[in-house]
What we know:
The chain is α/β, with parallel strands linked by helices. The protein is built from 5 helices and 6 strands, in the order αβαβαββαβαβ.
Amino acid sequence: ASSSRDEVLQDKRARILSRGLPKQKPIEGVKQVLVMASGKGGVGKSTTAGKIFLIFVQSTKEVGLLDADIYGPSIPKMMNLKGNPELTPKNLMRPLKNYGIACMSMGFLIEETAPIVWRGLMVMSAVEKLLRQVDWGQLDYLVIDMPPGTGDVQLSVSQNIPIAGTYIV
């Protein structure tokens, strides 16, 4: 009976694993995606992302910055941007630009003082919108500034898009 149960469990495990992870789909118009990550907050990850961008801009590369920190978006303040993104005729959001860098952040979509208490599906839905419902145009690099730690956002991003490189601060 025990070996029969083990076989059933192994068969079930094999079926689950055969489904695999979601297929990684590139972001339209983006050649390479780089991710900025950290194990904890307050280590200068967003500042480092911004400085990397300035290097890219000086090298005449087209770059974009996606602030994936749903809970504490800092890119609007760091990049000196305010306002809401405009919508294209295809109902995609246009990133706001400053310093030659196209930027998108949850901070553009909510009030600055509004608390965000989201979990699970709500977070993954917001990340999916930031990844798939933005008209980036043609970019050489899109740098994604992740929230600190490991969790839903990091898993959603790494499972859904091909990543060319990661910087860990």
